[in-house]
Amino acid sequence: MTATTVPPAVPPAEGSAGDRPDRATASVRGSLPLRAEILRQLRRRRTIGVFAIIAVLPLVLLLAFWLGRDGTPSATPGFVDLAQESGANLTVFALFASTSFLVIVIVALFAGDTVPAEASWSSLRYLLAAPVRRERLLRQKLLVAALSSVVALVVLPAWTFVIGGLAYGFGPYVGPTGDQLPVTTFGLRLLVIVAYLIVDLAVVGAIAFAIGTRTDAPLAAVGGAVLIMIVCAILDSITALGSLRDALPGHYAYAWADALNPTVDPSQMITGALWSVGYTVVLLALSWWHFLRKDVTS
């Protein structure tokens, strides 16, 4: 009988089946990188359009003030009357004019479009089969939306201050009561204002994001969030509701104006921030709960 030769055992080579689980895990962890999502965001027409509007806004304001000047001073000047005093005043007026609608639309656009846009392109299910874990996809999309919103909210006043300063000078901020803030003091107060706006508008992003996890239509998510904020603003104008209005999103939208007083009283801003954070946490938790159980078909 011929002896059977048994070949020597060969150790698993690198990349063999024994190594596949680790590689699969690494693949999941490395999928949908944040950098790639940011680059995609920068190339989208909606992003270019938003920042184009921000770039043009102070120029439109300058043109409007130039065309509408009548030389008649107001007995009780407000943000509009003082907008041409300095770049700081134009910045405050731009924020005052955009708080009720423009910045709401910007935040809703970035947050509400991010998930349903993938569904409308029929790429969401392929992303989840890549494989990309659902919680990771939501986290990456939310981070990019939040980062885009923050950049927009920072660029708007900064760019307006530069354009206004070149047109009207970089003088002190002059308040409606005649109080003045030096440029350096105004710069610090502006940081507080922007920080508050970011926190206060987080609820808008959370509403849009929550709707976006439930629909495949980006317009429904963006428009739904804007519509909810409009309804809240209408309800907020009904004085018969009394203290119930305090709980409405957007009730403390203009609390940032307290940062322009000679002595800052942060109580309204703190209250508004707490309401916004509370709503945001609840809405994002509901978004995660729903999307992790959602039957994704698009």
Automatic annotation (TrEMBL):
Keywords: Membrane, Transmembrane, Transmembrane helix. Residues 1-25 are annotated as: Disordered. GO terms for molecular function: ABC-type transporter activity. This is ABC-2 type transport system permease protein. The chain crosses the membrane at residues 48-68, 88-111, 142-170, 190-212, 219-241, 273-292. It comes from Microlunatus kandeliicorticis. Coiled coil: none annotated. It comes from the Bacteria. PANTHER family: INTEGRAL MEMBRANE PROTEIN-RELATED, MEMBRANE PROTEIN. GO terms for cellular component: plasma membrane.
